Amino acid sequence: MQTVEQIREFLEEVKDPEIPVLSLNDLGVITGIELNPDGFVTVRMTPTFAGCPAMDYMRAEVEQSLRKHGIKAFEVVMSFDEPWNSNKLSEKGRQALKDFGLAPPQPYQGILDLEILEYATCPNCQSQNTEMRTPFGPTLCRSMHYCNDCRQMFEQFKPL
Amino acid sequence: MQDLAIKDLLYKLADDQLILGHRNSEWTGMGPMLEEDIAFSSMAQDKLGHSLAFYSLLHELGEGEPDTVAFMRNADQFHNCQLTELPIGEYDFSLIRHFLFDNAESLRFESLSQSSHEGIARIATKLKGEVKYHVLHGNTMVKQLGSATEESISRLQQALDYALPYALGIFEPSKYEQELIDAGVYVGETSIQAEWENRISAVLAKTSLKLPDLASLTPVYGGRYGQHTEHLQPLLDEMAEVFKLDPTAEW
């Protein structure tokens, strides 16, 4: 029988389908893994954005990964019990986003005000002389920014 | 606390999101420029997600499956305010509607995140962050276009004058208003409306647009009680077309 740590390790293989360098663990959408004495596994997940169409896909991938590792009795529960926010992204995940060319969300404390939403560091030249062009990008979790120094458009994983 | 009062509140929230989400999606592929096409499409996707969250909670409280509730009711069973069902019109109207509605929705979710009803508070806590981006978008575009050219200013002013009586209908009190306030479930529409007026006035003050005296306008009420314009039923028919042909279809 597997341990919770092993199951978390299995889920390391499951990536965000739209940002394939980011595992679900690093994204912070796996909110709990429980193992009953009889071997029954419960994986708890929460969506990044409530309308994210990739969440069903991620859930199916989690189920597939569990099956692949011989776990037969399990359920994957999606809920808002522990709602996602961008502070849940791990350090490893933030670095992976940067390497991928996406600005990671600015960590914040307390209330997220509109100024933080517009703030982004250019992932190409690290300049902070940037401006938000539109809060909506190719996916619900990305906004579009322009760097005034290297004169490139770039995307940011939105702080939420 | 009556179940009916909670359900009434949830239907109003969910139906607003579903109907405006559908209207926003009508800009997909038709936006006046790529960024706005993407913005309205993204907001549509968000709003459908938000409606699903509320329909799912309703389902936990004994109502039908989310798809059934969304697709199988007729117009007179919908609780959305009439503002959300109006056709998208020109971009100026869609922008003004989105600005007026999302500022209200953001306040509603902020307040509901403190609700004494745990399920509602949980969903509102999640959604209030997402709606901030809708508000940011609406406020930015209104500030820019509201002080750009003569044409953009006069178009937005016309749209604003037309939309405002409907926007006041967002705050139509429900018959359970006092009960919800007393139980700490919801702070009530009067309070939300007052703060909404502050927020939209602050944005409009940075533009050349004029906010008419709201007290002199007659709010368009009825939506919360199932009275709708002629525009809602055709929208529902279109939305449910595939579901009614084959309820098990996946698309």
Automatic annotation (TrEMBL), chain A:
Spell out the InterPro entries in the cross-references: Fe-S_Maturation_MIP18 (IPR052339), FSCA_dom_sf (IPR034904), MIP18-like (IPR002744), PaaD-like (IPR011883), Zn_ribbon_PaaD (IPR056572)
Fetch the SUPFAM superfamilies from UniProt. Fe-S cluster assembly (FSCA) domain-like
**What Pfam families does the record point to?**
FeS_assembly_P, Zn_ribbon_PaaD
Boundaries of every MIP18 family-like domain copy: 5-68
Q: Name all PaaD zinc beta ribbon domain ranges.
A: 120-158
Record protein name field = Phenylacetate-CoA oxygenase subunit PaaJ
The protein's organism comes out as Nibribacter ruber
Automatic annotation (TrEMBL), chain B:
- N-terminal signal peptide: none
Which GO terms fall under biological process for this protein? phenylacetate catabolic process
Q: Report the InterPro entries cross-referenced here.
A: Aromatic_CoA_ox/epox, Ferritin-like, Ferritin-like_SF, PaaA_PaaC, PaaC
Q: Could you give one GO CC term from the UniProt record?
A: cytosol
Q: Which domain of life is it from?
A: Bacteria
* A Pfam entry, by short name: PaaA_PaaC
Record protein name field: Phenylacetate-CoA oxygenase subunit PaaC
- Source organism: Nibribacter ruber
